[in-house]
Every structure is written in structure tokens, then in C-alpha cells.
Design brief:
This protein has about 350 residues and is of the alpha+beta class. It has eleven helices and nine strands. Helix content is about 40%, strand content about 20%. Bound molecules: 3,4-dihydroxyphenylalanine. 3,4-dihydroxyphenylalanine binds next to strand 8 and strand 9.
Amino acid sequence: MLNQLETLAKTARTELTQLGTGDALDAWHGQYIGRKGELTQMLRRVGELPREERPVFGQRANQLRQELEAAYEQKTQTVKAAEMEQTLAKDALDVTLPGRPVSQGRLHPSTHTLRRIYQIWADMGFQIFRSRDVETDEMNFQLLNFPPHHPAREMQDTFYTTNPDVLLRTHTSPGQIRVMRERYPESIRVILPGMCYRHEQITARSEIQFYQVEGLAVGPGIRFSDLKGTLINFTNRLYGEGRPVRFRASHFPFTEPSAEMDVQCFLCDGQGCRICKYVGWLEILGCGMVHPNVLRNGGYDPTKYSGFAFGMGPERVTMLRHGIEDIRYFWGNDLRFLEQF
Ligand code: DAH
């Protein structure tokens, strides 16, 4: 049995030298010197030997076991170190390589302008009121004092849904009715920004979708001078302090009286140029005192309340500021355009 023991130890030692992975080493350990290993088993069979041979056998077996255990430890360390080398080599980073450029997103020019406009109105105490894009004919036209066959409807070619009473809003003005009905009897100071849609020929000057920013103030005793003062304050901040403005009489069904506001062309200082079409003025918004019928439709008694409203196109503001000559760039998704901002 002692011979058997020596042979076993020799085989184990030879095998050990040929192993190259941690897994193989574990298996080897189990096979020979683990709890159920062959050498361990032999050691247990010491009782089968004649009494006088037992100490020698036991000693030798323990000695061999310790030797193999030590050899195993040493081999494990070598293999682990080699494995580590390998992983390091495989996952090596070349820290001297130049980085890949991060391409940064940016705000759409319309978003820029909208945020500037929101800020100015916020400073004057106007909240943002979000109204819906899909409207009823009633809200978009009738309650704003456009009777069914009013010619002004023709100026706003409409996208209808399969239900002729449901349409895409042609302007943000229907939001006026919605905000009044929601806020009555409080005083109102809001702006209503949003997308509008018109079924028109797309040209350099007109798109089928575009933003508007509507404004509405309702309360007791609001006068036309409040409208003028507020809008002049706004244009001073948007176009620069002291830039001359003028109001021209106009017509909208939902305001009376109505006006359009012009600002002196800031490209030629009123001298006349291509952008202002040689008139020296740029038209920037429509406005007026809320029509009594509209106040009534919103739930406000026109004998006790009055209000002013205005509507402007932020794309036009952006075009003027940056000298953009074609409105189709805004929704063309051409990066060569968008990356300039
Ligand atoms: N809704 C008008 C349009 O789409 C713009 C407008 C004009 C809005 C005068 C107003 C206003 O609130 O008072 O052309």
C-alpha cells in the first residue's frame, strides 16, 4: 500500500505540472487531496494495515499530502498571474488615442425665440396657458365672432378632420375662450403659445404649420392704453429700448377696435431695405380690445369686464433677427441650417 501511495503521489505531481487554468487546478485538487480525493481515501484506509506499519504509512501519507498541497498553492499562484496578464493584454486601452468628438444637440431657433418671448411676458406677470391643437369649428371660429359664412374664414384655409366640426386650429385665438371659461371670474393675464395649421400653398413666406403666441388680459377697467403700454414694453425688450413702433387700424372679428403693430426696421433704421420691402417698418403682431361677444362667450359680462388680446408669429421674429429669408427652413430638418444656431 505504501508503494501504491508513492505511485499515486507521483502521478498527481506530474499531472499538476501540466495544468494551465484555475478550473483544471480545482478539479485536480478535488481528485487527489480534497475531502473525497484519492490520497485522502487511502489515508482513511490506514486501519486495514497491520498495526506496526500504520505509523510509517500515516506519516508518509500526511507528508505527501502537505507536499502536494504546497505544490498546488504555488501552481495556483502562477496560473492566476498568467490569467491576469492575459486579461490585461486583451482589454488594454490605448490612452494616447484622441477622443471621439461628442456631437452636441442644440435648441431649434424657434425654441430660442419662444423662450425669450416667454421670459419677457413672465416678467410682466403673464402665465403660459396651453390650449389644444385639435379644435372644434365652434371654438376656432364661431365663439370668436366668425359667423358660419364669414369671409374672414377664407383667409385661414382650414385642415378639417373627417368630422367637419373638428379641425386643426388655424390660430391660437380659440385658447382665449378656453382660458376664460376656466378662469371666470378671475382676472386673466396669460400667453397661449402653440402650433397652428393652415391648408395653404407652401412658399418661402407661408408654411402649413407655424407657431403663434397669443396673449390675453381680462379684468375690470382694462383700456386700449393698457394694450399699447404693455406691447410697447414688450417690443422694447425684444427689439431694443427706444426702437420706434406704430399702431395701424385693422380688423379682426374677435377684437374691436383692432390694430396691427409695426416696429421700425432694425436692419435699415427706417431707411428702407429689402427686408422691410422699402417701407421702413416691419409688421410684428395683430391686437385689439376683446370683442364684447367674445367676452360673453367666455363667460365674462362685457359691461363689467374688458380686455385686450394680441397674436404674433415667432418664426417671423426669428427670421427678422437672423435674416432668414425662407420659412421652409424651420421644418425642413436640414442640419446645415439648424447647426448655425
Ligand atoms: N388670430 C389672428 C391670426 O391668426 C392673430 C391675432 C390678431 C390674434 C389679433 C389676436 C388679435 O389675439 O387680437 O391671424
